[in-house]
Each structure stands twice: as structure tokens, then as C-alpha cells.
Write a structure and sequence with these properties.
6 helices, about 230 residues
């Protein structure tokens, strides 16, 4: 009962935060300490967005072939945000239904808070496919609760710092658009970057990542036939 009350309170806190921020913006909030930090509008360039979409398409197609009769779907809308893919015995194309697992594809900086939000609000495990590292991270409900608790506490601490007028300058100052004495001249980013190198890297890791996700999906479906576990 106590756990349910704590869980309900945490979910209410998260929903309050989501009235101000999108799930995709929350990792940056946890990564920055200064309460006056104002993120730039750093949308992905068309080249890097294209790389993400190509990688997501290739990964989900290969995963469907690997899983055979187990369904896979792409770009499934949730109550807050949209998850890159879902896999399970029953595919839901909306946030209504019972998807077995979520899949988030990352070809740049890996995020933890965004998938934790999806998992906490849905009760569905999320696999984060980090294609630059060739790794797969699993976020279950307990881990999602831990991450979101830290986010909630961090935002409260930042609000206290704001009330006290305390700034916490750091490396993120170069990405901040607040008019502040610590503001840095923006450096030229990605001056030597070649999007095609990123494409080669992420495509080279897809097969290994697909194999790992397939194993995890099958294990999750097997566990769902037994008493439900959060681990």
C-alpha cells in the first residue's frame, strides 16, 4: 500500500513536470546543475535526423525478421511523446493496449530519463539501443522510478538555487542562451564532423544490437507467462 502511495505521488510529480517539459528535454535538465540554464534550440540537422531514421528503420526491419511471428511496430504514440518501436505478441499502435516492450533508438547522445518516463507511465520495459556504442540498456519499472525520483529531486534543488540566486557555471555554459556573466562565446561545433562516419558506425552495430534485443524480447515474453516481475 505504501509503495502504491509513493508510486502515485511520483507519477503525479512527473505529470506536473511534463506540463512544462517534453520527455526528450528532461535528460538535459538532469545533466545541468545551474537553475538559470536556458537550453538552445539545438534541433538535429537534417543529416543527423536522416541517420537516426535510417538506423531505426533498419533495426526494426531486422528485428522483425529475427523475431518472426512476434510483432514489431514503429513510431507508436504514447500519452507523452512517441516511442521509436514496440515489440510483442500483441502490437498496439496507440497508447491503449498492452505492448510487451518499448524500443528507443539512439544514434547520438544516449538518454535515460526519456525512456524512464515512458516506462514509469506505462509499466512497460524499455530497451535503449545505443547504436554508436553497440550497446543495449534495459530500463524496467524499478530503474525508471529511481531515475525519475532523481529528476524530481534535482528540479526541486534547482528551484531552491534559483530562489537563492545561485548560479552553477560549467561546461554547459557554452550551450546556454541565458544573458549571464558566465556566458561563453559559442564554439564552432562539429567542424571536423562527417555525418557519413556516424552512419557507417551505427549501421555497423545494428546486427549485434538486434541480436541482443531479440534475446531480451524473447526473455521478456517468457517471463510474462509466469508471475509478472519488475526485474
Amino acid at each position: 500500500m505504501v509503495e502504491n502511495e509513493i508510486g502515485n505521488k511520483l507519477e503525479a510529480e512527473l505529470r506536473r513536470i511534463l506540463r512544462k517539459f517534453k520527455p526528450s528535454q528532461l535528460d538535459e535538465q538532469l545533466l545541468t546543475a545551474c537553475p538559470f540554464y536556458e537550453p538552445e534550440n539545438r534541433e538535429l540537422t537534417s543529416a543527423y535526423r536522416l541517420i537516426h531514421d535510417i538506423a531505426k528503420s533498419r533495426l526494426l526491419a531486422k528485428l522483425q525478421l529475427k523475431l518472426n511471428e512476434i510483432g514489431v511496430a514503429s513510431e507508436v504514440p504514447l500519452e507523452f511523446g512517441c516511442v521509436d518501436g514496440v515489440a510483442g505478441s500483441r502490437i498496439c499502435l496507440t497508447n491503449e493496449g498492452n505492448c510487451s516492450v518499448f524500443i528507443e533508438v539512439k544514434t547520438g547522445r544516449t538518454k535515460l530519463v526519456q525512456p524512464a518516463v515512458y516506462t514509469l507511465l506505462s509499466g512497460t520495459k524499455t530497451f535503449v539501443a545505443d547504436l554508436k556504442a553497440g550497446d543495449v540498456l534495459s530500463i524496467n519499472v524499478r530503474m525508471a522510478e529511481r531515475i525519475v525520483k532523481e529528476l524530481v529531486t534535482h528540479l526541486k534543488d534547482k528551484e531552491r538555487l534559483r530562489e537563492l540566486g545561485k548560479r552553477v557555471p560549467g561546461a554547459e555554459c557554452r550551450y546556454c542562451r541565458a544573458d549571464c556573466e558566465y556566458r561563453r562565446d559559442k564554439e564552432v561545433e562539429r567542424k571536423n564532423a562527417n555525418p557519413l562516419k556516424t552512419l557507417q558506425l551505427v549501421l555497423g552495430n545494428i546486427d549485434a544490437v538486434v541480436d541482443r534485443i531479440a534475446v531480451e524480447v524473447l526473455r521478456e515474453l517468457e517471463n510474462s507467462r509466469s508471475p509478472r516481475s519488475l526485474t
